[in-house]
Amino acid sequence: MTPWQFRGVPRPQTRVRRGNPGNDDLASNVPPAWRQDEQRRPAMELFLMVLVVSMAALGLTVVAFAIANTPASGSESEAAEQRPVQAASAPRFFADDPMTASVVTARRPALTAEALRLHIERHIRLEQAAAENFLARPTSQSLHSRTTSVLVN
Amino acid sequence: MATVMTARQAELVTDLAPADADGVLALGVRRTLTPGGVLFSLGDAADHMYLITRGRIALTLPMQVLGHSEDVLVEERLPGETIGWSALIPPHRFTLKAAAPLETEVLAFPRAALLSHFATRPAVGYQVVLNVAAVMGHRLQVLQAMWLRQVQHMVELRSV
């Protein structure tokens, strides 16, 4: 697009070449306003070309950035939303068996309680031994001697 | 202490003449417990005192562990040791549960038979009660020391 097309002004048929002696007569027939436009035209064309190319590049960059970001975040969030559903709905054969599930849930706390009970019993034995030691040699130090019991350390 | 003993070595008849010890031991009724067998439970009426002659007795107390009631081992008693002195001391209720972790044999002494025997032989009764008091006193002292240690732990935890 030329500046003339851009402005909607019909382009003059006569072109004035500087330094061309054959054109001097023609140049003398051109109105002074036209003559000034003719002198500014190359700079204006260059400026508009740079402006249009810059705007186009900026537009392309914005569009490319939007395309690069929007679908990626969307698919990520969708995947994150679907993941638990898939995990929950995935078949877990024996674990899904209500009989097995009840045994597992019943056994898990029992094992933990068993382990804790063993800790308590070990603690009692250690404390009993410390108490017996105190009775054999009753001193303040032997009464409050340190224990290795995990329940108090 | 061995898992088997002669009854005369038992702490219940310590410092008794052999004839007097035999007289007391003759009151006992032999009882065999299979592994896991319960001799008495917490809160049961204490009508008998027991002398372990073979095996082992686990004394447990119920504790709430992670929402479950668990029998926690408090003490283990071996042959020659006496359990169930609550039979002689009011209010005659057991304060522990006694069970046999392995096959165990005990002599069970009915309270009525013991008291009747002691009534006719006060010196024997005095010595037996002294022996039982020694068992009780030792346990009291151990528990007192354990309790004090526990309080000390609590104080240390609070002062951190």
Brief summary of the model shown:
Chain A is mainly alpha-helical. Helix content of chain A is 76%, strand content 0%.
> How many angstroms separate the termini of chain A?
86 Å
Enumerate how many helices of chain A there are, as a single number.
Answer: 6
Amino- and carboxy-terminal Cα gap of chain B: 42 Å
Binned, the helix content of chain A reads over 70%
Largest interface, with counts of residues having CB < 8 Å to the other chain, equals:
A-B, 21 and 22 residues
Oligomer: heterodimer
Provide mean pLDDT of chain A, rounded.
66
**Strand tally of chain A, please?**
0
Rg of chain A is 47 Å
User: Could you give a short account of the major beta sheet of chain B?
Assistant: 4 strands, antiparallel
Number of helical regions of chain B: 3
Strands of chain B, count: 8
Strand composition percent of chain A: under 5%
- Most strands sheet of chain A: none
Order of H and E elements of chain A: HHHHHH
Radius of gyration of chain B: 17 Å
Shape of chain A: rod-shaped
Q: Indicate the low-confidence ranges of chain B by residue numbers.
A: none
3D architecture notes:
The complex is a heterodimer of chains A (153) and B (160). With 153 residues, chain A is mainly α. Chain A contains six helices and no strands. Chain A has helices at residues 3-7, 24-29, 32-89, 93-96, 98-136, 140-143. Mean pLDDT of chain A is 66; it is low at 77-107. Chain B is 35% helix and 29% strand. In chain B, α2 (111-120) crosses α3 (122-159). The radius of gyration of chain B is 17 Å and the shape is globular. Chain B is of the alpha+beta class and 160 residues long. The model of chain B has no long low-confidence stretch (mean pLDDT 91). In chain B, strands 1-8-3-6 form a four-stranded antiparallel beta sheet. The A-B interface holds A 109-110, 112-114, 116-117, 120-121, 124, 127-128, 130-132, 134-135, 143-144, 147, 152 and B 63, 65-68, 70, 72-75, 138, 141-143, 145-146, 148-150, 152-153, 157.
